[in-house]
């Protein structure tokens, strides 16, 4: 664990340094390009793009989490039972919908800019979280449920005190998956003028500048790996504290 | 499975009682709203913003009344607690009527001999389509059809769609006008798209399954391989596509015979390699998980029968792990069909060509020409492979 932590902190330090002062890293990217090409993207600051990228992703995933967990709670209650079979198959089929299609179809309604990307990420993040929340909430062992009922807990108390805490690790795994997918997918949003790190990559594709493509891609990938690791660590801690058996992997 | 969906129902015999279906209320409200939204949009030419045409203006009085009354009838079926089979039949017929009539709206709204005017489906059409599709999906999930019937249903729907397209019912719609202008390009890109999605899948299966077996046998290799493949997944697709341009251009220029094989810096080759890289993780990880889940007893029995390692792998472990591996292949195929649209950004072709051209020209019908086939392809592949996974899983078959 120790050396792993050191490596992660180093990577995080490098990432922060690069985002704040990309000019200092020009020497590392210059060999990839022809001599007259700029090694570092300067049309807009990498810091601003990174923050905007993270903002869109976290905002969309947060909204998706609230809606998805809320929906999962509704359909697993008695009153929402009618919706359970449909929502299961919708969650399954909806995930086959390609993100580019969502993005392109949102443009006529929302115009160019950050809007379509936010909507696409929201819709795309919704399904994995919903599916996991559903799995988590329906997997409460019947014995535990009976015990809670036997203690005289009301439906609300059972939900907040028993079912949700037991389902939390699985729900968090869904959120984590959603964030990682969204971080990468948000780059596609720059094809419809969202200000994300995709802008750097697309500038690289258009001007045949490999350094741009690499720095845009690297920032996103490193962010994804670090966030994924961080959330996994939180899940492990929660799992230990709750004593809940963690699902394998 | 979901047979107990009516927990409070008293025995349903004797007189018929009107009871509301909760989900039906939502669907009926959605569909009802859809009837008041513009059914089609008319534009004087390809680029100008459209103006909405209400149901009766878009279809004329006769067909307008037909669609209105049919929709109300189907929404009533949705609203009340009715048998799933009736709901399925009602929703599928409503869908068919809706799809045929949107073509009629195209003919009705286009002035005689006007080659520039464009008619596309309006928000009312899409909302009605969504409402009926939800009803159909709900009926299907309540019926819990067998895998073979689901595959049959997908094939049937594809046949109906093909029949509508071939009959020329939609020829007056803007999307098909776009198609007419680039019919040959459409089929060329369709071929590229399928080649990209299935070619990378085939390559990933050929490499990934043996790699997964190796990872299963050699423990230290497992964590390292899976970690590397996990990292590959975090690289944004457009970056990975772009980064492969340079190495492949180098290979094309320096490895004899490579360019004769079609390897080049831009185009299909980097797209195939990138999709292949993304595909490896699900295939390898599922092979490892599948092999790891083979019961010890089955292994011991096979060893006791005197089977060699190789025989055990081929005769016992692989067949038992097959459904899990197939699940990985399902994930890869659906993902690749979607990701292949990105290939257009690096000149790799595929349906993405129309999507990105359409975005560039703000011509939404061109976007639809690329997006709709991609969505249909991905959903069809998802449903068919889900059915195949279920067919291949012995436990599930035994339980039902």
From TrEMBL, chain A:
InterPro entries (alphabetical): ABC_transp_perm/SBD, MetI-like, MetI-like_sf
One Pfam family of this chain: BPD_transp_1
GO biological process: glycine betaine transport; transmembrane transport
Span of domain ABC transmembrane type-1: 50-231
Keyword Hydrolase: no
Topology term for the membrane: Multi-pass membrane protein
Subcellular location(s) of the protein: Cell membrane
Source organism, top-level taxon: Bacteria
Annotated GO CC locations: plasma membrane
SUPFAM superfamilies named in the record: MetI-like (SSF161098)
Transmembrane segments: 50-75, 96-115, 121-144, 164-190, 210-231
Keyword Membrane: yes
Keyword line: Membrane, Transmembrane, Transmembrane helix, Transport
Family: Belongs to the binding-protein-dependent transport system permease family.
Annotated protein name in UniProt: ABC transporter permease
Species whose genome carries this gene: Arsenicitalea aurantiaca
Automatic annotation (TrEMBL), chain B:
Membrane topology recorded in Swiss-Prot or TrEMBL: Multi-pass membrane protein
Main location, first listed in the record: membrane
Family: Belongs to the binding-protein-dependent transport system permease family.
Protein's name according to its UniProt entry: ABC transporter permease
Subcellular location: Cell membrane
Pfam families in the record: BPD_transp_1 (PF00528)
Keyword set, alphabetical order: Membrane, Transmembrane, Transmembrane helix, Transport
Transmembrane segments: 20-41, 53-79, 86-103, 123-141, 153-173, 193-216, 228-251, 271-294, 314-333, 339-359, 366-389
GO cellular component entries: plasma membrane
Any GO BP: glycine betaine transport
Entries under InterPro entries matching the protein: ABC_transp_perm/SBD (IPR051204), MetI-like (IPR000515), MetI-like_sf (IPR035906)
Domain ABC transmembrane type-1, residue spans: 190-385
Annotated source species: Arsenicitalea aurantiaca
């Amino acid at each position: 664990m120790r050396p792993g932590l050191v490596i992660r902190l180093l990577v995080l330090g490098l990432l922060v340094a690069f985002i704040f002062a990309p000019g200092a890293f020009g020497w590392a990217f210059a060999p990839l390009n022809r001599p007259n090409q700029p090694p570092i993207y300067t049309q807009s600051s990498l810091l601003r793009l990174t923050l905007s990228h993270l903002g869109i992703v976290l905002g969309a995933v947060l909204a998706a989490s609230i809606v998805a967990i809320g929906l999962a709670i509704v359909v697993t209650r008695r009153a929402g039972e009618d919706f359970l079979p449909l929502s299961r198959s919708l969650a399954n089929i909806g995930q086959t919908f390609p993100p580019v299609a969502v993005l392109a179809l949102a443009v006529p309604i929302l115009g160019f800019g950050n809007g379509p990307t936010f909507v696409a990420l929201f819709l795309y993040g919704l399904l994995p979280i919903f599916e996991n929340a559903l799995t988590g909430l329906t997997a409460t062992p019947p014995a535990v449920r009976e015990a809670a009922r036997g203690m005289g807990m009301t439906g609300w108390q059972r939900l907040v005190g028993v079912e949700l805490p037991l389902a939390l690790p699985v729900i968090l795994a869904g959120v984590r998956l959603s964030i990682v997918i969204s971080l990468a997918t948000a780059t596609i949003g720059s094809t419809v003028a969202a200000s994300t790190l995709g802008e750097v990559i697309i500038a690289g594709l258009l001007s045949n500048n490999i350094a741009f493509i690499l720095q845009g891609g690297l920032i996103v990938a490193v962010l994804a790996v670090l966030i994924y690791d961080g959330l996994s660590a939180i899940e492990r801690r929660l799992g230990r504290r709750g004593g809940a058996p963690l699902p394998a992997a | 499975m979901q047979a107990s969906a009516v927990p409070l129902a008293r025995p349903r015999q004797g007189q018929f009682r009107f009871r509301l279906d909760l989900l039906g209320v939502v669907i009926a409200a959605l569909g009802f709203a859809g009837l008041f939204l513009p059914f089609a949009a008319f534009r004087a030419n390809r680029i100008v913003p459209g103006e909405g045409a209400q149901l009766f203006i878009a279809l004329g009085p006769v067909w307008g009344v037909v669609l209105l009354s049919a929709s109300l009838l189907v929404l009533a079926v949705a609203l009340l607690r009715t048998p799933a089979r009736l709901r399925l039949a009602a929703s599928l017929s409503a869908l068919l009527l809706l799809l045929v009539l949107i073509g009629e709206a195209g003919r009705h709204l286009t002035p005689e001999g006007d080659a520039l005017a464009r008619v596309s489906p309006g928000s009312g059409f899409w909302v009605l389509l969504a409402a009926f599709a939800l009803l159909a999906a709900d009926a299907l999930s309540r019926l819990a059809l067998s895998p073979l019937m689901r595959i049959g249903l997908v094939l049937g729907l594809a046949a109906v769609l093909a029949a509508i397209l071939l009959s020329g019912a939609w020829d007056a719609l803007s999307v098909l006008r776009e198609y007419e202008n680039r019919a040959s390009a459409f089929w060329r890109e369709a071929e590229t798209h399928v080649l990209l999605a299935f070619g990378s899948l085939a390559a990933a299966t050929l490499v990934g399954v043996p790699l997964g077996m190796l990872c299963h046998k050699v423990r230290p290799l497992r964590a390292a391989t899976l970690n590397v493949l996990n990292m590959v997944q975090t690289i944004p697709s457009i970056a990975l596509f772009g980064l492969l341009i340079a190495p492949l251009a180098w290979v094309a220029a320096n490895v004899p015979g490579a360019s004769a094989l079609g390897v080049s810096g831009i185009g299909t080759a980097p797209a195939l390699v990138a999709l292949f890289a993304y595909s490896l993780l699900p295939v390898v990880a599922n092979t490892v998980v599948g092999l790891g889940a083979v019961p010890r007893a089955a292994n011991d029995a096979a060893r006791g029968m005197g089977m060699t390692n190789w025989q055990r792998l081929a005769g016992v472990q692989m067949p038992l792990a097959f459904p899990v591996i197939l699940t990985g292949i399902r994930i890869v195929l659906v993902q690749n069909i979607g990701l292949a649209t990105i290939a257009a950004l690096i000149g790799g072709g595929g349906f993405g060509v129309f999507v990105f051209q359409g975005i560039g020209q703000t011509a939404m019908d061109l976007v639809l020409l690329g997006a709709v086939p991609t969505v249909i392809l991905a959903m069809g592949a998802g449903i068919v492979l889900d059915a195949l996974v279920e067919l291949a899983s012995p436990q599930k078959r035994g339980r039902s």
